[in-house]
Design goal:
The complex is a heterodimer of chains A (470) and B (207). Chain A is an alpha+beta fold. Chain A is built from 13 helices and 9 strands. Chain B has a 5-stranded parallel β-sheet, with helices on both faces. Classes of the chains: A alpha+beta (470), B alpha/beta (207).
């Protein structure tokens, strides 16, 4: 391979020449000789569907400099890519592709096009002159077209030629280049037109590029947002599972407790029946209690399942008190391990709230868990968790939970709902943040008040439908 | 003296379990008293009867293990059977060390519980008898005068009358009189019986 020589071979797949113009090959050679390797590569790429490699090697005299050997086209590529490319080129025989082809084509072509346009304009002007006044409208069209298809260089040539021809053939005295002062504006106007067309073309290109960039950016942003949404949903699910994981012991207790009740009651029933004079009343009562235990166990299981399943958000009219009772029952084991007394004060006849049941359960469970953990180090005062629901004015239902724990210090207060903010050694700091976003999604407020050393109160309000009462 | 009927106490915060256990133990012929919390158990005036306590480890407020310690501190002697949803080894070790009789995990088989209750009640009867006997001995020993107690201690230590007289700086005759009083007051049938009673008192005091 000669230095600075472009080697362009046939495509092995379809047999067509990868670059099918001798002039392109020459241009490549020139560029390579000038040292514009990148540009040469770009040209080669724009004409060929196949990968283009530039080969370089260090020269013997100075090892620091590299010398370009040439641009080669890798013919070991697949034929279908080539045919695809060729197909696109034939399909795209629009104005746009002609223009781009011309802009990339050689100078002679472009200048030939200038001649063609200008002579066409001249011919049309002659034709128009036979109908009346000389008209330079065709020249304008020619200049704009040349600018459009062939770029600014040929555009200037077209403008100069148009001015000359117009001046020679149509401005009296005709067939001479002599100018009279009052006729001056016309040729200048043509030049002005050329400048404007040029500018317009370049503006258009710029605007196109920026629109493309904008569309690309918007698509990118949308993709990012979608990914973020998915990640957030996944994180929320993970946090739910972590919540459940923290409660594993309590859950085991909650499931085991009804089972123990069932076993105790069935044993009692058997014992009452086994004696010589079976006591049917006692046996029946024991059997009923065993049944109640079974129902309670299944409730616990379904509650846990609702917490960990991946369900889309479903808003419905739900009874807040019911949810609170369920969750308090689920967390009772956790509370009793930590020696926490849970006081539940539910307002009777609370209107139904419009919310997602599972998400609400998650929020309440999280708040209860936080409350219990806030009190884990408390000695010398009762560990009490007060959970309240109440109706508020303007169709709102309020849920509040008060603990007698360590409270939140003033410096931590502003960061309380930030993701990954935690004051505990265990925990990822997602609980409050996720709860916050859930409540925000229900379009309601949530706030926290805390007096350090005396515990904190968390509250949220939900919209309710006054028409639906329990 | 005929012992009163044994009473089984059940403390569990879970309603269904409490009533279930109540029914189960009642079916075995025991008298049962069930309480939702330790506080209510303490408020209830317990009759003087043998019995045992079935105690849930996990309860809101006071936990079962803490309550067991409180009972010990308050000098309330009652055999404790622990029941728990999921017990671990440290929990069981602590319970047994504090004197629990049994440690059962829920769900409890009825027969296991009844066996444990039977054993606990029998144990309580024995303990009560022992405690009563010990109390009687103590009462008798408490009636001794200071001099008699000194003589008693030396007799139990195996000293002869002569050696005791020498030790206390009195005559052998005086020692003999004191010794006769001691034997009479403590109702000891022989020297061996006296030594045995003194030893029993000492070990119970050491406890």
């Amino acid at each position: 391979m000669q230095p600075g020589h472009a080697v362009i071979t046939r495509c092995r797949g379809c047999g067509t020449r990868a670059v099918n113009s001798r002039s392109v090959q020459r241009e490549l050679d020139e560029r390579l000789l000038e040292g514009c390797v990148a540009y040469a590569e770009q040209i080669a790429r724009s004409y060929c569907c196949l990968p283009v490699h530039s080969r370089t090697q260090g020269t013997e005299d100075s090892s620091s400099k590299t010398q370009t050997l040439g641009v080669s086209v890798d013919t070991g590529c697949f034929a279908d890519r080539h045919t695809d490319f060729m197909q696109k080129r034939t399909d795209g025989l629009t104005m746009r592709s002609i223009r781009s082809w011309l802009l990339r084509g050689n100078a002679i072509w472009r200048h030939a096009l200038v001649m063609a346009f200008v002579s066409g304009a001249l011919f049309l002007s002659f034709a128009l002159e036979s109908f009346g006044n000389p008209h330079w409208f065709p020249f304008r069209v020619a200049i704009v077209a040349v600018n459009w298809f062939c770029g600014p260089g040929p555009g200037w040539l077209a403008a100069a030629l148009s001015v000359a021809l117009f001046q020679y053939y149509f401005i009296p005295p005709t067939h001479s280049f002599a100018l009279r002062r009052r006729d001056l504006p016309s040729p200048f106007f043509l030049i002005l037109l050329q400048v404007t067309a040029n500018l317009a073309a370049s503006w258009k290109r710029q605007i196109e590029a920026s629109i493309k960039l904008l569309i690309h950016q918007m698509a990118e942003q949308r993709r990012t947002e979608e990914a973020l949404q998915i990640a957030r949903a996944e994180l929320a699910r993970v946090a739910r599972i972590t919540t459940v994981g923290h409660l594993a012991a309590a859950i085991a207790h909650e499931v085991n407790q009804p089972l123990a009740a069932i076993v105790a009651n069935t044993d009692a029933r058997a014992a009452w029946l086994d004696v010589q004079t079976p006591n049917l009343v006692e046996a029946r009562a024991a059997a009923e209690r065993a049944g109640q235990g079974a129902i309670r166990a299944s409730e616990v299981v379904s509650c846990i399942r609702a917490l960990i399943t991946k369900k889309p958000t479903e808003r419905d009219y739900v009874q807040l008190n019911e949810i609170v009772e369920e969750i308090v029952a689920l967390a009772a084991g956790h509370a009793s391990i930590s020696a926490v007394t849970v006081v539940v004060e539910l307002a009777p006849g609370l209107p139904l709230v419009h919310a997602d049941r599972v998400q609400l359960q998650q929020v309440i469970l999280n708040l209860i868990r936080n409350g219990i953990e806030a009190m884990s180090g408390i000695e010398g005062r009762p560990r009490q968790l007060v959970i309240k629901t109440q109706t508020q004015a303007a169709g709102m239902v309020c849920f509040s939970i008060q603990d007698s724990g360590i409270g939140v210090s003033a410096e931590h207060m502003p960061r309380l709902f930030e993701p990954f903010f935690t004051t505990r050694t265990q925990g990822i700091g997602m609980g409050l943040s996720i709860s916050h976003s859930i409540i925000e999604a229900h379009a309601r407020r949530r706030w926290a008040e805390s007096t350090p050393d005396h515990g904190s109160v968390f509250q949220f309000t939900l919209p309710c439908d006054a028409g639906h009462t329990a | 003296m005929k012992e009163a009927d044994p009473i089984v106490y059940v403390i569990d915060d879970d309603d269904l379990i409490r009533t279930g256990l109540h029914s189960l133990i009642r079916s075995a012929g025991f008298c049962v008293q069930a309480f939702p919390s330790a506080r209510e158990f303490m408020l209830w005036k317990r009759p003087d009867a043998p019995g045992c306590l079935i105690l849930d480890v996990r309860m809101p407020g006071l936990s079962g293990l803490d309550f067991q310690r409180q009972l010990c501190d308050a000098d309330i002697h009652i055999p404790v059977i622990f029941i728990t949803g999921h017990g671990d080894i440290p929990m069981a070790v602590r319970a047994i060390k504090e004197g629990a009789l049994d440690f059962l995990t829920k769900p409890i088989l009825g027969q296991d519980l009844l066996d444990a209750v039977g054993k606990a009640v029998a144990r309580d009867c024995e303990l009560r008898k022992e405690r009563a006997a010990l109390a009687a001995i103590r009462a008798r020993f408490d009636s001794l005068t200071a001099r008699e107690t000194q003589v008693l201690n030396l007799v139990v230590a195996g000293l002869l009358n002569k050696q005791i007289a020498d030790e206390l700086g009195t005559s052998e005759l005086t020692v003999k009189t004191h010794r006769a009083h001691v034997m009479e007051k403590t109702q000891a049938q022989s020297l061996a019986h006296l030594v045995q009673m003194a030893e029993r008192l000492k070990t119970s005091l050491r406890k």
